[in-house]
What we know:
This is Porin. InterPro entries: Porin_dom_sf. Keywords: Signal. It is a single chain. The chain is globular, with a radius of gyration of 21 Å. The chain has a single domain (32-443), classed as Porin (Beta Barrel), CATH 2.40.160. It has helices at residues 32-37, 153-156, 169-174, 338-341, 423-431; strands at 47-58, 85-100, 103-110, 118-119, 122-123, 126-137, 140-148, 178-180, 196-198, 203-206, 210-222, 225-235, 248-261, 268-279, 282-283, 286-287, 290-301, 309-319, 322-324, 343-346, 352-363, 368-379, 388-402, 405-417, 435-443. The strands form 5 sheets. The protein has a 16-stranded antiparallel beta barrel with strand order 1-2-3-6-7-11-12-13-14-17-18-21-22-23-24-25. The protein has 5 helices and 25 strands.
Amino acid sequence: MIQKKPLLLSFFLSASLGAGTLFTQPAEAANWLAVQMVSPPKAPLFTVSGFIEPTIWAQNGTVASAVGETPHINLIAPGFSQSTTAGIMRARIMFRGNLNHHISYFFGGEFGNNGFTHIRKGYQPGLIDGHVTFSYIPGARVEVGLIRTPGALGAIEGVFAYNYVLSPTMRLQLLNQHMIQGNSNYIIRPNAKHSYLVPGAANLGTSGYRNPGIMVGDWFRSGHWETSYYAMLGMYGTVAAGNQSGAPMEAVRLQEAYVLSGKGPFRSDIQGGIWYQHARPRLLGHGYDMNRYGVDASYSQGYMHPWGRMLRFSYVHGSGWIFAPAPFNETPAIAKKAPLYNSQIYPGIANKAWGYMVEGGLFFTKNIEMTLRYDLYNRLPNDPAQNRIFKDFAVGLQYHFTPKTKIMAGYYFRTLDVPHPNDVSSSVASSVDNLFAMQAIISF
């Protein structure tokens, strides 16, 4: 087994930023899905808000010696052209309000440079949220449109709850994997294995954890206890790329919380949840089962208070439709090695992947918070030749100006294990860089 832990970057960046916010948090929201499902009861007919996330990334850009090229893991997504750069990772404007006491709406456009807006190798901003919620039926709020799909806690939270610039690998690859165009003109079978190459022109970007459909859900309080449920029927596909092939999907989440104090998305509580997703995306005219399920638990107390603390755990398991991103850019040196510069999809239900994340945080003052995170993603353990194990240990530091405006810095110690290596995979594993990233979330 190969295990590589690269040298630390001799790179230091510093920044200072002050910002206010006019974006008031919902005062009576129960949890993150509730925050995004409905507007506060006293919200007006129309409100505008948004945020931008300027980001700096820095790593060595080490070359994989067996190929003579820098692998994607050492380059910055989504363009994979540089190892050290700066840009706007997310830029979003949102419109929401209450048409009456029973009808709430929420629409949001994404304009940043990320996996959601990187479609068919090009930049394409798009609608990332778009739904209307009807609350006429007691105990069953009905949401229709482009919906944040019930799933893992980290996937249903808003970006204001994120503690790191980089999300856990297991969540990105299993839950926010790239959509692909199931047209035979773009997808080719490389060999006798049950996997298919995905050229860049067939890559439709990520879904941002959203899918079109209809969801029923609600939350119920009894003293300190709160029970929430969400059940969705929809289509698996990204609206931004027009990929609405009719592939069905279902998703459910059940969540229990003990509220310690406070209201809104930054309250103090202990909560746990279980969830399940199923879809049948199509490839070359055939539908394949895709299953995702998991559990999570969290404890948060004293947000933006001295000695406020947080603990979180999440486990995700997947079977069928496992996506493996391309290891390299297409260059003359590897032009004849298509599996290296094309992503691959493993659609059969026998294909597996799983991962977990554990995280902790502590406020030293009202504004300064330190966080630690470890995440592991084990991709295709059923296929020894393609098995890859990604391990990341992240150290983060945040300065909170307000609950929704802050600056984050993080250092990521990254390891790639290849249980059954060949020359290329061994070289890639040995070249993996650590990464430093800094980001501001500025709300308006």
